[in-house]
Structure formats: structure tokens, C-alpha cells
Design a protein that fits this description.
Number of domains: 1
Number of strands: 6
Low-confidence stretches: 269-273
Distance between the termini: 42 Å
Strand order of the largest sheet: 3-2-1-4-6-5
CATH class: Alpha Beta
CATH architecture: 3-Layer(aba) Sandwich
Largest sheet: 6 strands, mixed
Shape: globular
Order of helices and strands: HHEHEHEHEHEEHHH
Structural class: alpha/beta
Number of helices: 9
Strand content: 5-15%
CATH superfamily: HUPs
CATH topology: Rossmann fold
Mean pLDDT: 89
Helix content: 40-55%
Amino acid sequence: MSDTKIPYQELIDGTIPPWIRRFIKKTGKTINKFGMIRNNETVILGISGGKDSLALALALSLRRKWLPINYNLKGIMINWVEHPISEEDKKELHLFFDKLDIELLIVDEPQYSVSFKGEFNCYLCSRNRRRIIFNYARDNHIALIALGHHLDDLVETTLINTCFRGKFSTMQPIQEFFKGAIHIIRPMIEVRESVVKRIANTYALPVVKPVCPFDQTNIRARLKPIVSELSHIDNLTREHIFKSHNFDYVIPRDENDMVIIKNDIILEQTQED
């Protein structure tokens, strides 16, 4: 069997196999179930360069071709100056997003904020990245930010919070920040990571793997084999954990069914998931 990956252009041109259609439709079903995106709304995509955020961009872009409505997508990628991606990687990412009709902004920022006072961990890195994206959303009057978290991320977060923090909570399909000025949405939250991996292994997506000193040593990496073992007992373990949270949040919208832009809210700090 050849190791050559299929050009992603085939998907853009309409050659979409059934399993990819199922992935896109599952993402769309989650969007519809939780009312994440409406007609003519603008959504920022938080792009890391990894398989998850690129798969999300692919799903949201291709899905627009099948719908009677339209929405605008803008990608923003944080390029840490301590671990910058190459110019060739930037070129490939811009080409990918151009073909998806998504504007991509790559911004150079320091990973180690002075406010960390020499400390650094996964939470602080995530907080710093989110602060930058929140500020961009505020400055451009955009209220929706889509992240590429999948079902396995939700399951791992549930186990982390339950086993190590003593509370049954997790990342949510829709998460409100700053009294509703910003909403994070997670359209792939019901998609298994195995599906996303298959996409990245099959198609030549321009995946960039930024340097992360905690990539294989953090708690999430250690939980993955445990989740796998649980799924050997019941293949729907992930789905059962998702269902147990009983998510019911709805984004407030105006009389025209548009997300409400609250320009008077000042975004000064981030919040923890």
C-alpha cells in the first residue's frame, strides 16, 4: 500500500468519500444541535497548525457549499517567537486556507508572558494564546471563536477534573466569556480523535507541529491509553461521558437571530475551562 497521501484539493473539488461526508455532517449536526453558527455570522477559527484545527477549518469550509446559508470564517494562528514555524510552513498554511476561502492571519507573539513571573505550564500557555485571540475578537467586533477540540479532548478533561480536581466538569460545546461578549464554540466536540487522525493520515494537510516541551509528558498524554482501555470494555464510553454532562447552553441572539455584539465589554483577563 502506498504511503503517498491524497491531495486535499480533491476534497475541495468535490471528491469527498462517504467517511469524510459523515465527519462533516457530524460536525454540522453538533452546530445545529447547539445553535453555534447562524446565517451571516463571522467566526474566528483558533488555528494551531495541528491536525485538529485544520480538520475543523476543512469541515466548516466544505459544509458551507451544502447549506442555503452562509457564514464568514477568519483564522488566526499564534506563531510563538521562541519556537517559530518556517516560512515554508507559513506559505503552505496560507495556500490551504486560501483554497478554503478562509482569511488566515499568522501573528508573532512571545510564548512566555512577563506576567507568568518565570512560571510556565500547559495552562499558562493556553491562557496566553486565548488572551491574544480574545483581544483580536474584541478589536474586530467578533463574538464567536471556534476551536478544534474533539470528543477525546472532552473525555480527558472530564477525567482530569473528576480524578484530580474533585469536580465533575469539562470543556463545553459552547462556553460563555465576559458576560456573553465572547462565546467559544467547539463544532467537533462529538467527533472522535480517531476520525481526525484518519483525515490527517489520508490527506496531505499542511500540518505543522509547533514545539511543545510538555507534549508527551502532560496528564492528557498519560490518560489516552486509559480512555482506550475503557473503550475496550464499552465502545461507546466516550459518547456516554459526553451525554452525562447534559449540555443545554444556548447563545443569546437578537430579534434577527444574530449573535449579540457587546462592544462595551473590556476583555482584561481570561478564564479557566
